[in-house]
Amino acid sequence: MLTDNHGRKINYVRLAVTDRCNLRCFYCMPEHGLDWLSRSELMSYEEMLRICSLMVSMGVEKIRITGGEPFVRKDIMQLLTSLSKLNGLKQLTLTTNGVLTAPHVPELKKIGVKSVNLSMDTLDRNKFFTITRRDELPAVLETLEQLLKHDIDVKINAVVMDGKNIDDIIPLVELTKNLPVSVRFIEEMPFNGEGNHYSHLHWHYMRILRKIQEQFPNIEKLVDAPHSTSYNYHIPNHRGNVGIIAAYSRTFCGTCNRIRLTPQGMLNTCLYDGGVLNLKDLMRNGLSDEEIAQQLLNSISHRAKDGFVAERLRNEKGPVHESMATIGG
User: Fold this and answer.
1) Closest CA to 25 of 172, 140, 125, 129
2) What pTM value is reported for the model?
3) Which domain holds residue 296?
4) Which of 18, 83, 103, 164 has a CB 3.0–4.6 Å from the CB of 73, allowing a cystine?
């Protein structure tokens, strides 16, 4: 079974299926985009299915599909359908920007996807264009409507950015009054394809909470689920909930149960570690499942204690110039 050197059980994999995206969010990548990976550099769907099957046999119970944007990769529903049939997998979920997702919602429901994270940093169309450099908010809202119509749980993820969408925090919270959604505010992180773009985090999780409390002083703390990355709250008489994710402050590392696979097959045992094992190369070099499993166990047995240690070890190798699109969120 997958247990790290700090006694943390690993049962959750975030699989990024592509580095490409149809938005250009300024906090994720430069306006011109990235130097996209060639098709040969990406894991094939067969390779993704093989490594996920192996990990499920080793105790992984949840797989989240991420990107980039998953739905820009051709025939993504074929992979999702195959993953949904893995014996032992309890949860198949995905994170999407919603631009291309709406037509696929009925099929997502059919294969058993019960929860979707929808990225949406604002409800204002002009601000959406400023943040993403694309005029796609109507498509995202259509995806939200379709997900709710098909009774799929929705978590709306909003990155909180100083000077960009602070005035959008309360309108997003107000969505929870009439909709059964969880609106989660995420601390901005230093991965935008251009290195660290700020030296100090102005809107940390406590400041975000205080902003919400000013408008909703009766907001109540909920009991957080095991391994939760968010601090969760409820406003009386609201259908939905509010969450705050301390992604930059890294307050949840002690219970972290997740690992990440990049589109090119790199294993990240921490969001901040930069990659520790290329599983695609192992498969293409002809290693058996048993040999790959042993290397997986070895990598996880040398996992950094938390994101700060991982970041420090990584920075010793040189400056970081990376995008969230290449990591998988």
Assistant:
1) 129
2) 0.90
3) 12-327
4) 18
